[in-house]
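ARCHIVE CARD
CATEGORY: sequence design from structure
SOURCE FIELD: tokenized fold
FIELD CONTENT:
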């Protein structure tokens, strides 16, 4: 029996059953090569692959919401990834970052169609987080001003500042009481007469 077990062990760990292919599914943000490297399965005997450990390593990547890892005999591992959803493009200088609704910085990568905010200061680290209230404010302002807005910026001094298509400036300040600030802007926009700067940092004024 011991001899048979030894032969079986040698058979299962032979070079015929080493993982030679890793299939990655579900990635748009992530780099499949990075996921393959993180899973650390290539070249390992397929019978010794711990799918839960590989999944745990991949799940630690900043853009991964959930992941499943499975094996296909004789030599294939399949990694199915569900990525986090970016909602804002966070631009610092020439660097652009995908950020989700919870403020998680998913990747240094650009994507068309996302609300864009230009941020002063140091770029965030991928895997770190920015203030989710600022993320929500960017989305709300972009939606409220729609086609009127030319550029949206964030700075420590002024908070959110929108430059409109006609070069008028709207200072929105911090995210607090944002619905009221946008309501005040709507009323001012209907007033007759020209204006160039509207400071809503203290909307009660």
């Amino acid at each position: 029996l011991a001899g048979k077990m030894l032969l079986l062990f040698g058979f299962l760990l032979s070079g015929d059953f080493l993982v030679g292919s890793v299939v990655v599914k579900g990635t748009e943000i992530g780099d499949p090569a990075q996921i393959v490297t993180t899973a650390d399965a290539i070249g390992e005997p397929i019978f010794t692959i711990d799918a839960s450990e590989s999944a745990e390593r991949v799940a630690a990547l900043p853009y991964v919401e959930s992941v499943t890892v499975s094996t296909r005999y004789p030599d294939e591992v399949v990694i199915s990834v569900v990525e986090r959803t970016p909602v804002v493009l966070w631009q610092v200088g020439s660097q652009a970052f995908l950020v989700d609704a919870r403020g998680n910085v998913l990747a240094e990568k650009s994507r068309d169609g996302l609300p864009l905010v230009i941020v002063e200061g140091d770029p965030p680290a991928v895997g770190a987080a920015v203030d989710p209230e600022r993320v929500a404010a960017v989305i709300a302002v972009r939606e409220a001003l729609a086609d009127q807005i030319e550029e949206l910026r964030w700075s420590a001094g002024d908070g959110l500042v929108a430059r409109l298509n006609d070069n008028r400036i709207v200072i929105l300040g911090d995210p607090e009481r944002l619905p009221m600030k946008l309501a005040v802007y709507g009323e001012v926009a209907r007033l007759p007469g020209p204006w160039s700067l509207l400071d809503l940092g203290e909307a009660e004024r």
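CARD ANNOTATION: The first helix runs from residue 2 to 12. Confidence is low (pLDDT under 50) at residues 6-13.
SHELF: design records, drawer C
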